[in-house]
Specification:
It is built from no helices and eleven strands. By secondary structure, the chain is mostly beta strands.
Length: 124
């Protein structure tokens, strides 16, 4: 059972930066696809970025390319999302996610584990 705990959310003005962290524990398989998703009120969760735990290959949603960077410290089992040049439309609850296996190069895959989420609010 993988446990995921997010931190780093908060409120900043447009143009600012935030860094989200996700502390993971309980890995039992060799390959995991780690990712960040976000959810607007009343909407379905959407993919933001993924990273292969073993290869570091990444994938981003078009809306965040060039502004967000996903990374990981595998020794510390921690996932990061560096968010720069934030916009009001980035306001959402951000979730850390883990799926057994390699990332498919899209967001169309089943997530096996979710964190509880952290709220990011961007004011204009």
């Amino acid at each position: 059972q993988v446990q995921l705990v997010e931190s780093g959310g908060g409120s900043v003005q447009a143009g600012g930066s935030l860094r989200l962290s996700c502390a993971a524990s309980g890995y039992t398989y060799r390959d995991y696809c780690m990712g960040w998703f976000r959810q607007y009120p009343g909407k379905e969760r959407e993919g933001v970025a993924t990273i292969n735990r073993n290869t570091d290959s990444t994938y981003y949603a078009d809306s965040v390319k060039g502004r967000f960077t996903i990374s990981q410290d595998t020794a510390k089992n921690t996932l990061f999302l560096q968010m720069n040049n934030l916009k009001p439309e980035d306001t959402a609850t951000y979730y850390c996610a883990a799926a057994i296996g390699n990332c498919p190069g899209s967001f169309s895959y089943g997530v096996d584990y979710w964190g509880k989420g952290t709220l990011v609010t961007i004011s204009s």
